[in-house]
């Protein structure tokens, strides 16, 4: 396996985001924005926050870039299925004790963005150092440099080519690359631990279930594997988000709750949209209340999902709670926007998605319209949002309109499971850690209770999305340090058992 390049300036991109599709009636079928499952979100006050994810050049010679000739279609024997494309992966040998020692291999499963090595911060290298492990980072097909044949935008416009873009193909990609690396390094006896966050966390859990002969265990951080096929109530995400805001500030929660009807009231008046545009200093005139509401829901959901360590909800609520005396409801809401994003000449760009790259948004839009059909909505008034029920028919109509094919809402639960998960996994699953922070709205779709002695839930009350695999900080709270330590102890147990079994096999 020859070294092809060295990372000089690794890309840091979010691993899972949160933007929602409104159901306002208009000419084409309404769309519903499904939260992108990214590990990180950019600092809202940083300039160009959608792209402020390239860190300093600090990885130097440690990380080596390789490209594997990946099979386009793993599940079909037609001639075109045998076509290959270069899939990028990154390796660090720094801490590896070698194949002769059967030292472990840690594999980070890339998700819906360009491959990010620094996105795992010190967590992955620190873990590798602890276990004398090889580090492998694999880019998800159709992202970054791993798009078959053409640029991503062109690939997603090609109805045939984008058909090869799904989670099952991605898992087989990972299996091929892992087995190839083990063969080339003569590391057949090196145990593999797969790690992922958010969508990548789902992939890690599913990989352990589908490929137990390849991976000894999996750490699935903030992986909402139950958010499919209406296994859980569709309003779970919004219920947790509402609780987060209410616990931060009762007044803030009430103002947000009242703001939606106030937006509707103002919009219904003469020149109402123009009035709203001025109140919120929009970069272009509002075409509908949908533009404004989507923007605000995006803000609140991102603040909740990625609350720590910046305390994003507090940013919003401090603005709302400290608005000038006599400010009306919408002026208070706008004060929260300014507090969150900082002073700007204008807010709300129609053609700009905050926090996340166009690449991520394009790819995620297709993924949730194909196999990752996340059933999310608001069915009652127990949240701080207006009712917006999950409507599968409307979602199918939108995806049909956008891509010419309907989504497959039952694919995930058929292929990976989900119903009766406790009983099923107790019977045949093993060696999976499901970690969650209960402040994360997506924790509502996560596994929050131990299923068996080796399928374990490690959760923290204050934790946010993928916080346990984020960059360690000197001021990390004790509960976060403890969560990481518990996860490492569990993995240590898996490896100890593996090596004991290996010694017995060699002795026999």
UniProtKB/TrEMBL annotation:
<keyword id="KW-0378">Hydrolase</keyword>
<dbReference type="GO" id="GO:0008239">
    <property type="term" value="F:dipeptidyl-peptidase activity"/>
</dbReference>
<protein>
    <recommendedName>
        <fullName>Lysosomal Pro-X carboxypeptidase</fullName>
    </recommendedName>
</protein>
<dbReference type="GO" id="GO:0070008">
    <property type="term" value="F:serine-type exopeptidase activity"/>
</dbReference>
<dbReference type="InterPro" id="IPR029058">
    <property type="entry name" value="AB_hydrolase_fold"/>
</dbReference>
<dbReference type="InterPro" id="IPR008758">
    <property type="entry name" value="Peptidase_S28"/>
</dbReference>
<keyword id="KW-0732">Signal</keyword>
<keyword id="KW-0645">Protease</keyword>
<dbReference type="Pfam" id="PF05577">
    <property type="entry name" value="Peptidase_S28"/>
</dbReference>
<keyword id="KW-0325">Glycoprotein</keyword>
<dbReference type="InterPro" id="IPR042269">
    <property type="entry name" value="Ser_carbopepase_S28_SKS"/>
</dbReference>
<comment type="similarity">
    <text>Belongs to the peptidase S28 family.</text>
</comment>
<feature type="signal peptide">
    <location>
        <begin position="1"/>
        <end position="27"/>
    </location>
</feature>
<dbReference type="GO" id="GO:0006508">
    <property type="term" value="P:proteolysis"/>
</dbReference>
